[in-house]
Each structure stands twice: as C-alpha cells, then as structure tokens.
Amino acid sequence: MIKFLKYSSAPRHIKNYIEPIAAKEFSVYPLVAETQWVTPHWIALSYHDDEIVTFCNIVEREIFIDDKMYKAAGLNNLVTPEKFRGNGYGTKLVIEFKNFIFNKINCDLGLLLCSDNLVPFYEKLGWYLVDCPVHYWQPQGIKLWQANTMLLNPDSSIQPGRIHLNGLPW
Ligand SMILES: CC(C)(COP(=O)(O)OP(=O)(O)OC[C@H]1O[C@@H](n2cnc3c(N)ncnc32)[C@H](O)[C@@H]1OP(=O)(O)O)[C@@H](O)C(=O)NCCC(=O)NCCS
Questions:
Q1: 65-98 pLDDT, tens digit each
Q2: Of 48, 82, 102, 131, which is the most buried if we count CB atoms within 10 A?
Q3: pLDDT digits (tens, 9 = 90+) for 112-135
Q4: Which atom of ligand 1 is nearest to the CA of 93?
Q5: Ligand 1: which residue has its CA nearest to atom 31?
C-alpha cells in the first residue's frame, strides 16, 4: 500500500522515523551536506505488513525551462531501508509517484537530482538525463548544480537548454 501525506500534516513519529534514515544515506555526500534543501510538500510512503519499506519526498514548484514556466514535481530522498532493498519497492514507489504527479496534482513534469550510479535505475522507469545548466537558490546566491538532473514527462518531449529551479533544490 502506498500513501501520499501532506508534509505539513504528516505525523511526527513518521518524520522521526524516515528523516534520520535519509540523513544517514545522503549526508555522506559533500555536495548534499553543504547544500540547503527545500522542505517538501508531500511524503510518499510504501508499506508492507504495516512497515514502511520505501519512502520519498515530493516538492511542488513552478520552475523555468528556457524561460517558460512549468509546474514541476520534485522527487527526492527516495530510500528503501537496507533490509528491504531489492524487492521492487523502490521501483513501485517511483511508478506511483508518476501516477500521483500527473493524475492527482497535475504537474507538467517530474524532476530529480541524482548521482551517476542511480541514472540507470531511473532510466528504466522512463526518466531521462538532461544535458544543460541547472540553477537553484542558496542563501549565498544562485548556484549551478554539479551532478545529474533527470526529467519525467509523458512523451519525453521537453529537451531543455537551461533550467532554473526557482528556489532551493530538492
Ligand atoms: C535506490 C533504492 C531506493 C532502490 O530501492 P529498492 O527498493 O532496492 O529498489 P528496487 O528493488 O525496485 O530496484 C533495485 C534496483 O536498483 C538498483 N540500485 C539500487 N541501488 C543502487 C545503487 N546505489 N547503484 C546502482 N543501482 C542501484 C539495483 O541494482 C536494482 O536494479 P535491477 O532492478 O536492475 O536489479 C535503494 O537502493 C536505496 O535506498 N538506496 C540508497 C539511497 C539512494 O541512493 N536513493 C536514491 C536517491 S536519488
């Protein structure tokens, strides 16, 4: 069973469970540790036998691609705790993310930032790499993203020349 909860009203015990797991996974990367990240709008939770087996965050944001505004859904902090990995839970959640963003919250596209090793995982699920500058806000000013950016849109028709996330990254 997969649930989508508004981040602002998600129970504290759920945040207390997932946030340290995500922090442990990602804070080892210097780029992640030194970046200020946005607070998400949604938490997606996948359950098996009442246990959370995978989770991710979703950000809703109007971004700019080649100066045109799009309603983007950002996917971040996708984690399957180690003992549950390799059972297809991550794949299933990313598929449900797609249904949710296009059918429930009416986004134009999905966007995620990731490291090289995860690119094949997302490519299998219909995401594609973009090869263009991606800018985002930080307290010090506008920054250029230094790792991969992937998009998801129904016919892969958006081929950006430049992207501005129009806020903190996810
Ligand atoms: C990536 C992750 C969410 C996958 O979850 P999962 O429930 O094990 O996913 P699935 O069982 O659906 O699929 C596993 C697939 O992901 C691939 N995969 C998982 N982690 C990977 C990694 N670090 N590098 C490369 N491939 C990886 C596996 O090889 C497998 O591929 P296959 O289907 O071709 O065999 C999980 O490994 C995880 O939490 N990793 C640490 C956090 C992370 O990197 N999250 C992604 C942020 S962008």
A1: 998 999 999 999 999 999 999 999 999 999 999 9
A2: 102
A3: 999 999 999 999 999 999 999 999
A4: 12
A5: 121
Atom 10 of ligand 1, nearest CA residue = 88
HEC assignment per residue over the chain: CEEEEEHHHCCHHHHHHHHHHHHHHHCCCHHHHCCCCCCCCEEEEEEECCEEEEEEEEEEEEEEECCEEEEEEEEEEEECCHHHCCCCHHHHHHHHHHHHHHHHCCCCEEEEEECHHHHHHHHCCCCEECCCCEEEEECCEEEECCCEEEEECCCCCCCCCCEECCCCCC
Share of the chain above pLDDT 90, in %: 96
If you take atom 17 of ligand 1, which residue's CA is the nearest one?
121
pTM: 0.95
